[in-house]
Amino acid sequence: MAHQPFLVVGGTGKTGRQVVARLRARGAPVRVAPRAAERRFDWADERTWRPALEGVASV
């Protein structure tokens, strides 16, 4: 597995939560990016993209 985290956009939602759980069960580092958090990701707000994507292996 990658040493850099996978970014799960919407990782607190119905499907994203399941994706996060399965990645973590495999020992993968995961960064959850909800729309409302300190390090958030919002498709409609380009200012949130770079901070959320810094240091991730994949989205």
Helices and strands in order:
Elements: E1 6-9, H1 14-25, E2 30-33, H2 49-53
Parallel strand pairs: 1-2
Would you write up a description of this structure?
The chain has about 60 residues and is of the alpha+beta class. It has one domain. About 30% of the residues lie in helices and about 15% in strands. It has a two-stranded parallel ribbon with strand order 1-2. The longest helix has 12 residues, at about 15-25. The radius of gyration is 11 Å and the shape is flat. The two termini are about 15 Å apart. About 15% of the residues are buried.
Keyword list:
single chain, 59 residues, alpha+beta, two-stranded parallel ribbon, 2 helices, flat
Walk across the major sheet and give the strand order. Answer: 1-2
> How much β-strand is present in the residues?
5-15%
Please tell me the overall pLDDT.
88
Query: Main β-sheet: number of strands, strand sense, barrel status?
Result: 2 strands, parallel
Contiguous low-pLDDT stretches (5 residues minimum) are none
What is the domain tally?
A: 1
How many beta strands in the DSSP annotation?
Answer: 2
Please report the distance between the alpha carbons of the first and last residues: 14 Å
Helix content estimate: 25-40%
Q: How would you spell out the order of helices and strands?
A: EHEH
Rg, rounded, reads 11 Å
Q: Assign an overall shape.
A: flat
The helix/strand class is: alpha+beta
Query: With helices defined by DSSP (H or I, 4 residues minimum), what is the helix count?
Result: 2
